[in-house]
Write a structure and sequence with these properties.
alpha+beta; Aminopeptidase; 4-stranded mixed beta sheet; 2 helices; elongated; binds coenzyme A
């Protein structure tokens, strides 16, 4: 999952399609990198829903997201809306599995130096 964050268009330039271009660029880049989910914490629900983002419960977001919130004055009263876009055309990558250790294998321990 990757986050679309710090998205802002100058007041004078809003409504000209710049915000949309930036979000579409992020979506294209996510596809290029094989990232299947994009999230945003925002007040602009209608804007993000145009791209297919849907509102989700904040508790469903990875804990790492909240590391940014520690210093935020709104930390305990966050009123941002959590939204997620799932790119269903991006393949799901299985995390590599460690090869299981065979039973009865002893782990060599180096002898301590006498010095
Ligand atoms: C949200 C923001 C980035 C949109 O940028 P923008 O360049 O004005 O957006 P666009 O011109 O690409 O607008 C795209 C569409 O969204 C709509 N839209 C834009 N801002 C909107 C808003 N605040 N609420 C609802 N719809 C909005 C536009 O009407 C347009 O609709 P259309 O495609 O049907 O014509 C800009 O308003 C902004 O900087 N807001 C303050 C910062 C912010 O809240 N960022 C999001 C935090 S993650």
């Amino acid at each position: 999952m990757a986050e679309v964050r710090s998205l802002a268009v100058d007041h004078e330039q809003r409504g000209k399609g710049i915000g949309s271009q930036l979000v579409r660029w992020c979506i294209d880049d996510a596809r290029r990198l094989g990232i299947r989910k994009l999230m945003s914490l925002t007040y602009e629900e209608r804007f993000f829903s145009k791209f297919g983002f849907v509102v989700v419960n904040k508790d469903t977001l990875p804990l790492k997201v909240w590391s940014d919130c520690v210093r935020c004055p709104k930390n305990l009263a966050c009123d941002e809306i959590a939204m997620v876009l799932e790119l269903t055309d991006v393949p799901i990558i299985q995390a590599p599995q460690a090869i299981p250790t065979p039973r009865g294998v002893s782990i060599p321990v180096l002898p301590e130096d006498d010095d």
